[in-house]
Amino acid sequence: MLNYILGKNLALYVKRHRLLVMCSIVLTAISSLFLVVPAYLIKPFVDEGMKLGTDPVSWKIPWIAFDGGSWLSWHQTEHVLVDNISPNRLLLLLTGVAVVSTILKSITSYFGELAAAAFSNRAVLSLRVDVFKKFISLPLGFHQKRKSGELIARATADLSVVQSSIVTILIGLIQHPLSAVVFLVYLLVMDYKLTLIVFFAGPVILGVIRLFGRKVKKHSVRVQDATADVTSAYQETLLCLKVVHEFSKGGYEANKFKNLAQTLYKRAMRWNYWNLGTTPILDVTVFLFMPVILVVGKMHYHHSLGDIMSMVYAFSRVYAPVKKLAKINNRLRTLQGATKRVFRIMNTVPAIREKPDAIVLPTHKDSIEFKNVSFGYEPDEPVLKNISFRVKAGETIAFVGSTGAGKSTILDLVPRFYDVTDGSISIDGIDIRDVTLDSLRKQIGIVNQDTLLFHDTIANNISYGKPDATSEEIEAVARAANAHNFIMAQPKGYDTVIGDQGTLLSGGQRQRIAIARALIIDPAILILDEAASALDAESETLIQKSIEKLHGTRTILIVAHRLSTIIQANHIYVIESGEIVEFGTLNELMALGGRFRELYDMQYRNSG
Ligand SMILES: Nc1ncnc2c1ncn2[C@@H]1O[C@H](COP(=O)(O)OP(=O)(O)OP(=O)(O)O)[C@@H](O)[C@H]1O
Ligand SMILES: [Mg+2]
After folding, report:
1. Are 475 and 596 within one domain?
2. What three-state secondary structure class fits 240?
3. Could you tell which of 409, 447, 579, 604 is best to mutate to test the pocket of ligand 1, judged by most ligand atoms within 8 Å of the CB?
């Protein structure tokens, strides 16, 4: 049932809180039953209680009697609840019953809704956490293909829709049909022939509900897509705010954003046409049936005023839930749109996966080997072709080559940010696809070409890989990265908060913090992608010195853009168009007089 309403995926989350769901259903059902009591009170209230004088009256309710105990033969009758009572006392009694039933209805519906709020919020809590985990577990390739703003919209806007809809839908699907049925039964008992008129209205009403539901679903998906675009625009512009200012494109960006916002507005309005349109259309349809009851009831069936009043009340009570069900149906369609989008991400199978029998990689102490490695970000566009090399533990190797040659890509394959398309990479003879991601990545310290830092203190940024690091440890790695002195010069030293992406620091300072951050986990393997941009002379020397200090204690793979770095390497590999074109020591390569010599003459002579 839940599967059918919410869809299998979402239902799984709701079902974890079965007990609360049951509580909520039972309480809501009870409260719907109390709702019908007033209808039973109107007739005696008007017909008996309002009588003048003191002649005793009685309180009767419509009843069905079965003749001879058989289900098939029955007749309509009345059941006396209270007999021989003065009209005034009957009025008091009826009022008392109405008050008590209203109180009971309110209490049960309050707790019913509370239980519903609890299970839906718990379900969304788990879903929200799972979506976040999924974002993290999906490979980098997945994220690079999508705007992060779009993903944020999924995690926020779509999940809010889910959260606010589950309760309304589930409670509504119990409450409204139940109260409609209860009142319908009352009406049938009162006068089944008259009530059958309702059934002519049925197909018309259902048709309207279905048509509007379909439209609402279609437009809700469009609204959510536009919301994602707007979220992306915020996010992208904030990220690139500096560029926007540089080119003074504020007006242009604002205009672009205005267009997106207007699209969102237009789509939201279209959604509203259909969503809000449901009710008036239904009202008109039903109004055509309502007078028929009054006219036919009075003229043909000779009902009393109390009968007619209570039947009209009951009719409106059958109709009100139906109208609400139409709205619920719209909500449900909106929810289905949002759920589909959230679970499209949730059901993406990450391309980088651990084998079920993955082993823990022992501490690296022998060698890292690439064997005929080929790789492409897109299947038909190879970026690396047949790369083979071997580096012994404790050695430093450098990759050089023109921009876009594939140097950073080689380094990204070692921690399995991407998997090779052909060939293999092994550490100490073990294929890295056979080990757990955790044990692999814990041994690798990485310093990227573009340093990403969190909006947090310097100390917390450095200790990110080892949150329990003592301040002595943090200082030690900062010293090793030659970062200690400039950190101490900051207003609050290690407790200085650096802005998002470390914008308050220079490029060289950021990279030295990144080196300290990589060293805190005491990695056996260090991967260093030198910033291609020129660093200030001081930073450059300091970074060189820190690399020098590490030399020999760990295996270092480095993409070198500076001669001083290259000099320290045991072996140098020259990469061009994804292939190793030359390799050897600095002297060997210089003597060879090939591509390396060319690069050296072009780039390094001046800067080195
Ligand atoms: N995420 C990605 N998706 C698709 N193609 C990519 C991706 N990252 C890099 N590439 C492509 O792969 C090739 C190699 O890129 P890579 O970043 O490895 O070059 P590089 O040698 O590090 O260059 P640089 O010296 O400028 O840092 C380039 O042609 C680049 O366009
Ligand atoms: Mg690079």
Report:
1. no
2. coil
3. 409
CA 451 to chain centre: 27
Structure tokens at 181: 């049925």
pLDDT band of residue 387 (cuts 50, 70, 90) is very high
Gyration radius from the chain CA atoms: 37
Instruction: Give the list of residues 6+ apart from residue 232 with CB closer than 8 angstroms, or none.
Output: 147, 148, 149, 150, 152, 153
- 425 closest CA partner among 406, 442, 412: 412
Q: Is the pLDDT of residue 37 over 90?
A: no
Domain count, the chain: 3
Residues 29 and 137 in one domain: yes
Position 126 scores a pLDDT of 92
- In sequence order, the 6+-apart residues with CB closer than 8 A to the CB of 73 are 66, 67
Which structural domain, as residue segments, surrounds residue 490?
454-522
* 414 and 496 co-located in one domain: no
Instruction: Say yes or no: 411 and 475 in one domain.
Output: no
Give the pLDDT of residue 303: 74
Same domain, 473 and 493: yes
| Cα–ligand 2 centroid distance for 412 (angstroms) | 10
d(CA 525, CA 445): 6
Distance 574 CA to ligand 2 centre (A): 13
- What digits encode the pLDDT tens for the residues 511-547? 889 999 999 998 999 999 887 666 677 777 888 888 8
Q: What share of the chain is helix, strand, coil (3-state, %, to 5)?
A: 65, 15, 20
CA distance 22 to 260: 43
Provide the pairing of β-strand 367-375 with 422-427.
antiparallel
Ligand 1 centre to CA of 533 (Å) is 16
Residues with CB under 6 A from ligand 1: 144, 377, 383, 401, 403-409, 449, 532
535 and 391 inside one domain: yes
pLDDT over threshold 90, residue 48: no
